[in-house]
UniProtKB/TrEMBL annotation:
This is Cytochrome b5 heme-binding domain-containing protein. Residues 217-295 form the Cytochrome b5 heme-binding domain. Keywords: Heme, Iron, Metal-binding. Residues 151-168 have a biased composition (Low complexity). Residues 48-66 have a biased composition (Basic and acidic residues). Coiled coil: none annotated. It comes from Talaromyces islandicus.
Length: 311
């Protein structure tokens, strides 16, 4: 009987132990279902908040990594919740944006370019893009500068004449031709315009050759030409291209003035004429003033002897 009692007590103790152990184990393993049942009120929010916190932490980690190593952009974070992270990153800081587009760059390359070059890549790319951009911009500048500098010089040369008297050295060379180009025309008296001269010359009755001359051309010797010097009431003759003209009536019509035209009186003025205005049509203006042909003294004597012999 004593043996049976001992076995019974042992069995009882074992049963009690097992019961407590089961209770402990049940409490441990039944926590989840118990918490899950209790978490129905706000479990999802806690879980999501924890997930979001984890995501934010990951995002911050990625930010810090990118900030430390900006070139390590292609690193793809394990967190793929791209939709939520970009919204937060856009408000917080932009550096995270390039990471997402790069991850999604496989899908669409268009959105990243406009965003990337704005801030970060502009700072990164300038050294790479600056050489081509500089080459493209520099040549036009250089090419544009050279042509732009030359015109100003030309303009300066055109502007120099008024400032010419002030400056001496530089303007002397540039102004010499300009001064020569300056018009030395004189103000002609009323009724002595080129048109007035043309009207006068068109009338043969005006006898622009001068009084006392035969109808035809005469032989004019150098001495005879010299005798018509234009002073003391004597007509002014001048020679041009082997022909002698009476310029007396043209003196008040000469645009360069009487004094200038008188420089050729009594002698050949071909050289002066071409030096000043080679473009002027001499014969067109003084055609009716033609007196004769310039001949040498001997030739003139020979002709007179021949004429005397014929008589
Ligand atoms: C000794 C000979 C001559 C001298 C020294 C002389 C001188 C001049 C000078 C200084 C001028 C002003 C040029 C200017 O700055 O615009 C001039 C203009 C002119 N001369 Fe004479 N001249 C001579 C003979 C002649 C003759 C023979 C004619 C006619 C056949 C003539 C017709 C003209 C004409 C048409 C102009 C105006 C030119 C123009 O509008 O550009 N000159 N001359």
């Amino acid at each position: 009987m004593g043996w049976i009692a001992a076995v019974g007590t042992l069995a009882l103790t074992v049963a009690i132990f097992l019961w407590f152990s089961n209770m402990w184990a049940f409490n441990i393993f039944s926590r989840r279902p118990a918490e899950a049942v209790t978490a129905q009120d706000a479990p999802a929010q806690d879980a999501q908040s924890e997930k979001e916190e984890d995501r934010i932490e990951e995002a911050e980690a990625t930010k810090s990594e990118e900030a430390e190593s900006p070139q390590a952009t292609p690193k793809a974070s394990a967190s793929v919740p791209d939709v939520q992270v970009p919204a937060l990153n856009l408000e917080d800081s932009q550096p995270v944006q390039p990471a997402q587009p790069k991850e999604s760059s496989s899908s669409s390359l268009m959105p990243p370019p406009p965003r990337i070059p704005t801030q970060q890549q502009q700072r990164r790319q300038p050294p790479k893009l600056s050489p081509p951009s500089g080459q493209l911009l520099a040549p036009p500048k250089v090419k544009s500068v050279a042509p732009l500098r030359t015109p100003p010089s030309a303009a300066a040369s055109l502007r120099a004449p008024p400032t010419a008297p002030a400056s001496s050295g530089l303007t002397a060379s540039t102004l010499a031709p300009s001064q020569q180009r300056q018009s030395r025309k004189v103000i002609l008296e009323p009724g002595h315009s080129p048109l007035d001269w043309a009207a006068l010359a068109s009338n043969p009755q005006n006898n622009l050759r001068g009084a006392g001359l035969p109808a035809g051309l005469i032989r004019v010797t150098p001495s005879l030409l010299k005798a018509h010097h234009g002073r003391k009431g004597v007509d002014a003759w001048t020679s041009y291209n082997g022909k002698v003209y009476n310029i007396t009536r043209y003196l008040p019509f000469h645009p360069g003035g009487k004094g200038e035209l008188m420089r050729g009186a009594g002698k050949d003025s071909e050289k002066l004429f071409f030096e000043i205005h080679p473009w002027v049509n001499w014969d067109g203006i003084l055609g009716e003033c033609l007196v004769g042909i310039l001949v040498s003294e001997n030739e003139a004597v020979a002709t007179t002897n021949e004429l005397d012999a014929m008589d």
